[in-house]
């Protein structure tokens, strides 16, 4: 059964702020901020980490990162299915657990200090999560197995999905603009962290000296742990349910995600009856996603399955696929996805190669990561302001104008 979530903090204020559940949206933005710091903080130093810390050649590092990129495409598709099937909360927690384990592998404390053996001869001792002789193999395992699952799933926009479920068509553009600003602000801070730490060496108690790049990666690991804690304690699959919309209205796009048609009639009646005066005044309640509620699908007794044979299942699958391929909106979305994929590939490669190029071309004294952060600061302000000012315009028209610019 669906019941309204406690503390859906949207009351007070006017305009767009009054139509957004501030508490739930704030939690999503906090997790997204930590996720962006974690992701950007590693991706911008990844190339230098492979070459400088592990001694890989440029060609070897490029081949590893290229293979990793294509694996992320595959795992990203898996992640998209996981979000629809398991929900944002469970997908996020699973991916963050993998990312946490990956940081334990990627930050091997290859620290050395002098120790005295039985013969009083100084010798080097290394304490690490992995032994030095196997570090290269474990690094490859991390890049090609743990990284694609943990990072690609988190990069599929699962927190954008959560934000969409907590907004209406009126407030969604503004909320996405704020999210994009938060995302790029975290990335810019990660660049500043890398620049501040990279040129120094640190002494970690119990382990010995730690290079600046590894110290920065340790900071990103702290961000992973924080985001995992927030997800475990506060992130839930809540959705915004309008109280005054008609679930049977056709023609126009649904105002909420999921649409009201995803609810049973008695569930909507229960929500309306249990709404507080403040919730009725603002026009919505916050409730668990009906598609993920336990036992929800069991209540659809009016839709019996005529046959459970493989042939019948295959026929229904083909009919669904045929209907999907016949939708103009599907092909339009596919075209935009392909375009955005190649743009993001170019952007992602530049993120990794630009700092290394600047350092080799202009020397180590140049604040390469602060130069890299200029793009983040611009993206924090420009697109976010445009998204807020154009939230009343249909999304495709906005994106077409942006592409032409």
Automatic annotation (TrEMBL):
<protein>
    <submittedName>
        <fullName>Uncharacterized protein</fullName>
    </submittedName>
</protein>
<dbReference type="InterPro" id="IPR050171">
    <property type="entry name" value="MFS_Transporters"/>
</dbReference>
<keyword id="KW-1003">Cell membrane</keyword>
<keyword id="KW-0812">Transmembrane</keyword>
<dbReference type="InterPro" id="IPR036259">
    <property type="entry name" value="MFS_trans_sf"/>
</dbReference>
<keyword id="KW-0472">Membrane</keyword>
<feature type="transmembrane region" description="Helical">
    <location>
        <begin position="59"/>
        <end position="83"/>
    </location>
</feature>
<feature type="transmembrane region" description="Helical">
    <location>
        <begin position="135"/>
        <end position="162"/>
    </location>
</feature>
<feature type="transmembrane region" description="Helical">
    <location>
        <begin position="213"/>
        <end position="235"/>
    </location>
</feature>
<dbReference type="GO" id="GO:0005886">
    <property type="term" value="C:plasma membrane"/>
</dbReference>
<keyword id="KW-0813">Transport</keyword>
<keyword id="KW-1133">Transmembrane helix</keyword>
